Write a sequence for this structure.
């Protein structure tokens, strides 16, 4: 049992769109990520996904509307809902999602990370 | 699907040791709480529990050591591990735990909240 300082963990990597696992509990993972630019449209058929913004402004596009998240704001995206994250400037975020969650759902893309790294 | 501003939610209540639910996903709940003073020794037999500090300093006593969490720090307490939270000054925190989690585990105490409120 070891405490985690999120700011310290964020200093350990620079790459975008590559979530790092900082905790596991009850079959879920806590991850942090740095993102910048446009990601791809995808969904997670069996997993709800939570985004919590640590720094910056994240736009989440859905097929019929867009949600803009600022620092200290969170959104839970229900399973099966297609979404596309966009960050005009670098965004730091915390993710909660089941261990089974695939990075880009069932889509294979050059941005897809097969294995999430523990950090 | 509605975004949640955590600071705004924290303005909606004052009571201590009474977690409020701000999100649900994958059988888990996201809660916020304000705490001050000493809580009671308890554990959760079947649930791991995560504390993330939003404001203040939280001491978590375990039977053989103590962990002090500052703002931006988190700790996952594995199921079955007895703990006692202590906040010398008011602490704001975010909790992540299964829906089944009871406030004080199997202990009944005047501080025990039977039902967590959505906010």
């Amino acid at each position: 049992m070891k405490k985690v300082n999120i700011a310290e963990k964020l200093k350990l990597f620079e790459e975008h769109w590559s979530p790092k696992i900082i905790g596991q509990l009850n079959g879920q993972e806590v991850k942090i990520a740095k993102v910048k630019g446009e990601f791809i449209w995808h969904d997670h058929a069996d997993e709800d996904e939570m985004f919590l913004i640590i720094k910056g402004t994240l736009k989440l596009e859905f097929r019929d509307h867009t949600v803009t998240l600022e620092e200290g704001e969170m959104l839970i995206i229900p399973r099966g809902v297609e979404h596309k994250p966009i960050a005009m400037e670098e965004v730091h975020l915390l993710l909660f999602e089941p261990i089974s969650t695939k990075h880009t759902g069932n889509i294979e893309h050059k941005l897809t990370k097969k294995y999430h790294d523990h950090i």
Summary: The CA atoms of residues 28 and 98 of chain A lie 4 Å apart.
